[in-house]
Amino acid sequence: MSIIINNKKDILNDGVNNSLYELVLLFRSNIISNDVHNDLSSLVSFISMRLSGSVISHEYWGLRPLSYEISGNKKAHFYFFSLSLKPSSVTSIKQFLANNANIIRSLILKSTFSESELLQPTQMMKNLASDIDKEMGEIHVSEDFNKFKI
């Protein structure tokens, strides 16, 4: 799946009133990849077109087990986003996500990281890359592997 992100300079300088946020989405385990792509594309369009925000980075953390069953799911597909938004847009995103039956849980938090830190891979991606290296030997995950454009 690839979605396009604007030039990094454009993202980071897109508005003086914007704040940085981190968004984690959990998609149901039996979802079809086309549905995920469509849902993520609509989310990115909603953020950029309707809310005048930007997606700074995106990562897929994989199909992971849940600590407890959520809406009949024991596993979920985890997605992470770094966003630049106006604080007043957070409620709109929460409502948008609540209307999507494929998303079983979401969390949006104001980020304490700097813009440049949000462009770096998260600790989760570093751990996943390390696990892959241990299991497969010579495989290395590129830092740009999970970046996409709007």
UniProtKB/TrEMBL annotation:
GO cellular component: cytoplasm; ribonucleoprotein complex; ribosome
A Pfam cross-reference name: Ribosomal_S6
GO molecular function: small ribosomal subunit rRNA binding; structural constituent of ribosome
SUPFAM superfamilies, A to Z: Ribosomal protein S6
Residues that span the membrane, as ranges: none
UniProtKB keywords: Ribonucleoprotein, Ribosomal protein, RNA-binding, rRNA-binding
Gene Ontology biological-process annotations: translation
NCBIfam families found in the cross-reference section: S6
Family in the record: Belongs to the bacterial ribosomal protein bS6 family.
Summary of the function given for this chain in its UniProt record: Binds together with bS18 to 16S ribosomal RNA.
Protein name per Swiss-Prot or TrEMBL: Small ribosomal subunit protein bS6
Species for this entry: Candidatus Deianiraea vastatrix
